Amino acid sequence: MTTSNIKANPLGAALCEKKWARWTALALLASAMFFAYIFVDILSPLQELLQEQRGWDPVAYGHFAGSEPFLNVFVFFLIFAGIILDKMGVRFTAVLSGAVMVAGGSLNYYAVTQGFQDSAVAVFLTENLNLPSAWWNVTPFYAGMPASAKLAAIGFMIFGCGAEMAGITVSRGIVKWFKGKEMALAMGVEMAIARVGVAVVVVGAPVIASIVPVEVSRPVAYAVLLLIIGLICFITYGFMDKKLDSQGVQEEKDDPFRVRDIGKILRLPIFWLVALLCVLYYSAIFPFQKYAINMLQCNLQFSAKDAGLVFFIFPLGAAAVTPFLGHYLDKYGKGATMLIFGAVLMILCHLTFAFIVPATQSVIVTLTAVVVLGISFALVPAALWPSVPKLIDEKLIGSAYALIFWIQNIGLYAFPMIIGSVLVASNPGVTDPMKYNYTVPMCVFASCGVAALLLGFALKALDAKKGYGLEKPNHVADDAEKELIGAAESMEE
Questions:
Q1: Nearest CA to 492 among 408, 428, 413, 369?
Q2: Helix, coil or strand: residue 6
Q3: Which CATH number fits domain 13-253: 2.120.10.30, 1.20.140.10, 1.10.260.40, 1.20.1250.20?
Q4: Where does the Major facilitator superfamily (MFS) profile domain lie (predicted)?
């Protein structure tokens, strides 16, 4: 990783030296990611309406929900995005990622509109992409999948490429503007703002959809409009970035992904502990968000709006707690312990949703579980990502993060489909989207937590034996800043 260099500027201080300018740049970058996070989950609170108005059962919804990382996983777009960023720089890649998100989001919107239902495209998709449920079919498409779900999945795939590209680009942009200044605070603020997008979605989407006449596509239209505003934010940032370049501020480059490093990394037992812990934990969180609103509707007999208000505190709590946990980890350490504690909290919450909430239908119990799950969601990422540089050789850090993130995306791709299929299989004959029993799906999520817990104990034991320093503070001279830069790109997810 090279060091940012500021050449002599005869006209005075560079733009990044001015506080108002760098925080304006952060506001533009963070706003674009905030709008992207809104779009990611815009349909999550509308599962009931999707089934009633568009015929998406949980299997169709699960295949759509898992389609976002498809191209990143199977076409390795994660790697291509990094190459584009390295070759073309922040300014170009930011605008490109914003345009790709708008294109994918627009296709997604068209798929769920009433106008699409009788179109020639709908007829074509009904007759095509009916792939068998065979081992080789790794796509989201299957025989009998509604045409609207097929097109929405295609749009979501394209959007996912842009969102992934935007995530790593924003991290690079923050480094460029905040190197040697408030970089840790800037990264924490950006990630917190992005996560608040989920809170906005769970409350706002049902309200917008319920405006008479009730229409499932209306919230998606608003979300696409926000993506367009996000693209404008990226374009505006581009003008500021160009001005900064003209003042001699060079962009910091990350260590590139190297194919030859893959073999070295895959032979490390510690890598597999971290990668598997990551994929198991995140598979029990992000796919859960896709089903959380409908689960609360079924367990508490709530409307989507009321369920959204209950779940609203989950992303807000996680966003609020994360900076404090990061500070604690930097100053006092205990990373492995935090991973274990986070996994325990997640297991307890999912088991509560599986057994206690359906039995008691208690809003207080539900709110408590949601709050605790938010704390878990803050604990694990705060401890996991900054720990990787302690475990992997410095020369392999960039490639290790890329591989871990790729493996994580496999789980994010597969688990929404798995949960959708499990939900249908465990509710034979149920067609009312308000009558699903979520006990078995929540037990599947809890089992991921149990496996992550065991890996956490194994990681702590290996740390005690090898002395990696997982329990030690992160803030060690200049290394802390280097860890934060690498971790931030992976934490965008």
A1: 408
A2: strand
A3: 1.20.1250.20
A4: 267-493
Pair of tokens at residue 50: 């999707």
- Structure token pair of residue 288: 């859960």
Please state, in angstroms and rounded to a whole number, the distance separating the CA atoms of residues 487 and 398.
10
Contact in structure between 481 and 185 (CB atoms under 8 Å): no
Distance CA 368, CA 352 (A): 10
Place of tokens 């842009």: 162
Structure tokens belonging to residue 443: 């037990």
Token pair of 387, please? 């720990």
Instruction: Give the start-to-end residue ranges of the domains of the chain.
Output: 13-253, 254-493
Give phi and psi for 305, each to the nearest 5: -65, -45
Q: In 3-state terms, what secondary structure has residue 393?
A: coil
- Report phi then psi at 126, rounded to 5: -65, -35
Q: Are 350 and 299 in contact (CB under 8 A)?
A: no
- CATH for the stretch 254-493: 1.20.1250.20
Domains 13-253 and 254-493 belong to one CATH topology = yes
Burial class (CB in 10 A: 0-12, 13-18, 19+), 113: middle
Element (H, E) at 263: helix 260-266
The separation between the first and the last C-alpha atoms of the chain, rounded to the nearest angstrom, is 22
Instruction: Count, in order, helices (H) and strands (E) of the chain.
Output: 21, 0
Dump pLDDT digits (tens) for 304-325: 989 999 998 888 877 777 777 7
Crossing angle of helices 439-466 and 335-351, rounded to 10°: 170
Determine contact, residues 267/396, Cβ cutoff 8 Å: no
Reduced to 3 states (helix: H, G, I; strand: E, B; else coil), residue 252 is: coil
| Burial grade of 305 (CB within 10 A; 0-12, 13-18, 19 or more) | middle
Burial of 118 (0-12, 13-18, 19+ CB in 10 A): exposed
Q: What single-letter amino acid sits at 138? A: V
| Alpha helix (H) residue ranges in 210-312 | 218-246, 260-266, 269-283, 286-300, 304-311
128 CB contacts (<8 Å, ≥6 apart)? none
Best CA proximity match to 4, nearest among 179, 185, 243 = 179
Closest residue by Cα to residue 95 from 169, 196, 182, 34: 169
CA-based nearest residue to 43, from 224, 201, 222: 201
With a CB cutoff of 8 Å and minimum separation 6, the contacts of 485 are: 1, 171, 175, 183, 252, 254
> 133-178, pLDDT tens digit by residue?
888 899 999 999 999 999 999 999 999 999 989 988 898 888 888 8
163/462 Cα distance (integer angstroms) = 35
Entry pTM: 0.86
CB atoms within 10 A of CB 434: 15
- Dihedral sign for Cα atoms in the order 384, 386, 392, 395: positive
Task: Report d(CA 187, CA 184) in Å as an integer.
Answer: 5
430, amino acid identity: V
